[in-house]
Amino acid sequence: MSDLVVVATVMQTPDRETLEVLHDAAVVVRDGAITAVLGPADPGRAEALAAATEVVAIEPPAVLVPGLVDVHLHASQWPQLGSALDIPLEEWLFQHTFPLEARFADVDFAVGVWESLVSGLLSEGTTTAVMFATVHEEATVELARVCGDLGLRADVGRVAMDLPDGTPEWYRDASPSASVEASHRSIQAIEALGGGRSLVRPIITPRFVPSCTDAALTGLGELAEATGVSIQTHCSESDWAHGYVLDRFGLSDARVLDRFGLLREHTVVAHGVQLGTDDLDLLRERGAGIAHCPLSNAYFADSALPVREALDRGVGIGLGSDVAGGFDASMLRQCATAVTSSRMLESGVDPAVAPTSRGRADARIDTTAAFWMATLGGAELLGLPVGLLEPGRRFDAVVLDPTSPGSSITEWPDLDDDARRFERFVRLAGRADVARVWVDGRAVVGDHATLQSR
Amino acid sequence: MSDLVVVATVMQTPDRETLEVLHDAAVVVRDGAITAVLGPADPGRAEALAAATEVVAIEPPAVLVPGLVDVHLHASQWPQLGSALDIPLEEWLFQHTFPLEARFADVDFAVGVWESLVSGLLSEGTTTAVMFATVHEEATVELARVCGDLGLRADVGRVAMDLPDGTPEWYRDASPSASVEASHRSIQAIEALGGGRSLVRPIITPRFVPSCTDAALTGLGELAEATGVSIQTHCSESDWAHGYVLDRFGLSDARVLDRFGLLREHTVVAHGVQLGTDDLDLLRERGAGIAHCPLSNAYFADSALPVREALDRGVGIGLGSDVAGGFDASMLRQCATAVTSSRMLESGVDPAVAPTSRGRADARIDTTAAFWMATLGGAELLGLPVGLLEPGRRFDAVVLDPTSPGSSITEWPDLDDDARRFERFVRLAGRADVARVWVDGRAVVGDHATLQSR
Fold first, then answer.
1. Cβ–Cβ under 8 Å, residues A318 and A373
2. Which of A302, A367, A423 sits opposite B347 (nearest CB)?
3. CA B290 to CA B273: how far, in whole Å?
4. I want to staple A104 with a disulfide (CB 3.0 to 4.6 A). Which of A110, A433, B254, B443 is the partner?
5. For the segment B249-305, what is each residue's pLDDT rounded down to a tens digit?
6. Nearest-CA neighbor of B334 among B453, B426, B454, B401?
7. Alpha carbons B426 and B190: distance in angstroms, whole number
8. 3-state DSSP call for residue B270?
9. What is the arithmetic mean of pLDDT over A160-177?
10. Partners of residue A366 in chain B, C-beta under 8 Å
């Protein structure tokens, strides 16, 4: 007995060096979980197909891939996506971003944005998202509710920021205790949504050290210890942010987070471009990891993350769109950008510098590693049983169909092998190719979806 | 009297610092040329609409933009698009690219690829393309024919490459004279296609100095002088290519091209990452310019082109996809990448380098400059009367419709001004948003198109 069997060519990355392609695989799903993945000759396949309530056959050249995991985005910046990036950071923050975030005091406005965001992410093939909401408790809980209703797996955090320096008077928590208490209440409210909404978890969200008082950071660390809820924040994103924390504490950003009890298992630190090797080792020891945001880093981080080095040191890493510092919500596009960015880091960028000192040796990653970060790597960082289509994991999956209208992919059956086809999907598939999406066994995009993609 | 009036919101860039938005503009087209662009209150508008054979009303939020100009791509590498970029250059060239190009000796194979390519480019909104074909005369002339038939404005060049070092025995011209003569015959054959096919011009195409003998370069320079046909080639693309020419001639790549009479008005040199300031000035003096290929440069050029500096020195610059060294045929995506690449050049990429010496000051460009390069900048480099919707130019234009299925663009009427909407189109529009395309007044994508987009 099963609810669903999906028969398809599966492409996935069980580790960051391995592309696994399963032709004509039957993925058996019961109560949202994968119970078996059966090849054409595997025993029990005919019985599994016969016993299924629903059988979906995905015809080549379409493929089935694990749902995409976005480990860092700012939900409230969704209306800014793709715009306002040609201006200085200070202007971006104080004239565009903070005023926009402040509008989420209006719950009706908030819900309109959340519904657009969540349906948009699902339509891009994102099945898990780790999100900063805003400082507002009500808007934050509404975001969690919308994720649950529309079927997006999500970690949703109320943004804590209470330090007057660097935050506007009209958009910050009133005091350290107000900051911690509001975060606590938002955790309870999100957990109380309960019912069929266990897809969504709260997450403790200090914006970053430069916008939080010591007292708030202390309280949030204690809140994490008391509740067991995990943590997201920014860490060593840019020269300024990295230097600010060094100046204030005489310690690196990662050490400071750790001192406040904020570097724990599954803590997601976004960007981390300026993390030193000691910091990377500390993250690994704590079970924390990095949200690698290659596109956003090009605009706001002053450097590229040496992601290959961080991977080689055993640090957990997922990919983040960083909507809207990153202008593209597509995690496949982020994969492509992660590869491109790593190539630019390896070669260097300035032709006036001698080749021998221009770049950083052995910095490149390939599309397999990038896709792994966008699926299993992110899932492992978050401690979620998704990211790979194998028995025991939840069924979060995406059909990419290059015959869809608007696809930029042309297939060349005589020339292509599986590796080239995979590389092309990762580099060129976009929203137009996303034909079906399931989260936790529920169809959320495509035929029979409760959510209609636009 | 006119054949066509298109009423729409026009977004375009008359210079690289100016976004021009014309609301409710009526673009009047006769015999493929724009005869007037009339605002709502302009005299004669009602008469122009009444006298038109066809009126097309483009409703907001869709916009009309000039057709996109791709000044550098390798037509024969179309089947490789998006694949085989995770491997070393040598392997990419000798195990994938040259063997693929060699297959175009088979004209049936060639025509199949050309039809896919040309319809694909039009569907991405590319209305002009400057293309390397292969060494084969017949395949090259067929490419020109297919462009004319399907309605793509194009410069099509037979690839000349005759130097045994660095080219495989099974894919090169037999001798310098064979190389020049075959190029000459391909020019005559393309010009003889004539008739309604004046959209397509031949272009003289030495692959690059490292694959050509002195005798062939001399002969091709003389051929340009004798025929007036313009030239495309690669120049100072990478450390290796730049250094090779210095070693062989004791002169820079640009000086060598000039010595052989190949740096002329409208000569397109691709990449040019290693061009010095003297080289840039020489290009400007000759009326030659650069095909800036930001995505491909990340993989093959060892550096980013300092494009802002080249623009500031007055060098003509267009954008090139460099299919398939660049993995994306969308010129809008190339615009977004050009901006991102310029930001990475400005900030630098390696966090281990001190901020003060990491990047290159004042290197950034914005989306307006990038779009200008992809339209008017490219058109001026090629000497073609396109790239801007104004009277006297040919009507090459694209409708971008963010309400199309598969679009990644969400509109926020209460939050957006024209500049933010433009930025979002440039950064996020893709093939799914390309709703209609006209080239030379002929509908080639969308309703009433003679070519159906897939």
1. yes
2. A302
3. 9
4. A110
5. 999 999 999 999 999 999 999 999 999 999 999 999 999 999 999 999 999 999 999
6. B426
7. 34
8. strand
9. 95
10. 86
Q: Which residue of B has its CA nearest to A368?
A: B86
How confident is the model at residue B197, as a pLDDT?
Answer: 55
Q: Is the pLDDT of residue A175 over 60?
A: yes
Q: Which amino acid would we find at residue A79?
A: P
Q: How far apart are CA A63 and CA A87, in angstroms?
A: 40
Q: Residue with structure tokens 């919500």? A: A329
Identity of the residue in A124, A336, A349 whose CB atom sits nearest the CB atom of B348: A349
- How far is B40 from B260, CA to CA, in rounded Å? 53
Q: Are B25 and B18 in contact (CB under 8 A)?
A: no
C-alpha triplet A203, A205, A208: angle, nearest 5°: 155
Contact present, B140 and B133 (Cβ < 8 Å) = yes
Residue linked to tokens 């375009």: B12
Handedness of CA A187, A193, A197, A198 (dihedral sign): positive
- Angle (deg, nearest 10), helices B137-150 and B176-193: 20
Residues in Cβ contact with A336 at an 8 Å cutoff, skipping those fewer than 6 apart:
A367, A370, A426, A427, A428, B327
Cα B407 to the chain's mean position, in Å? Answer: 24
With beta carbons under 8 A apart, name residues in chain B contacting A345.
349-350
Q: Is the pLDDT of residue B450 over 60?
A: no
Report how far residue A317's alpha carbon sits from residue A105's, in angstroms, rounded to the nearest whole number: 33
ipTM value greater than 0.85: yes
pLDDT score, position B414: 86
Amino acid identity for residue B232 in this structure: Q
Per-residue confidence at A448, pLDDT binned at 50, 70, 90? Answer: low
Q: Give the best residue of B349, B353, B417, B420 to mutate against chain A (max A CB count within 10 A).
A: B349
For chain B, the helix, strand and coil percentages under 3-state DSSP, each to the nearest 5: 40, 20, 35
> Is the pLDDT confidence value at B454 over 50?
no
Which tokens in the block code for residue A258? 């750790």
A311: closest CA of chain B, how far (Å): 16
The per-residue pLDDT for A97 is: 92
**Cβ–Cβ contacts within 10 Å for residue A309, how many?**
16
DSSP E strands: which ranges in A101-188? 126-132, 153-157, 159-160
Q: Do A86 and B124 touch (CB under 8 A)?
A: no
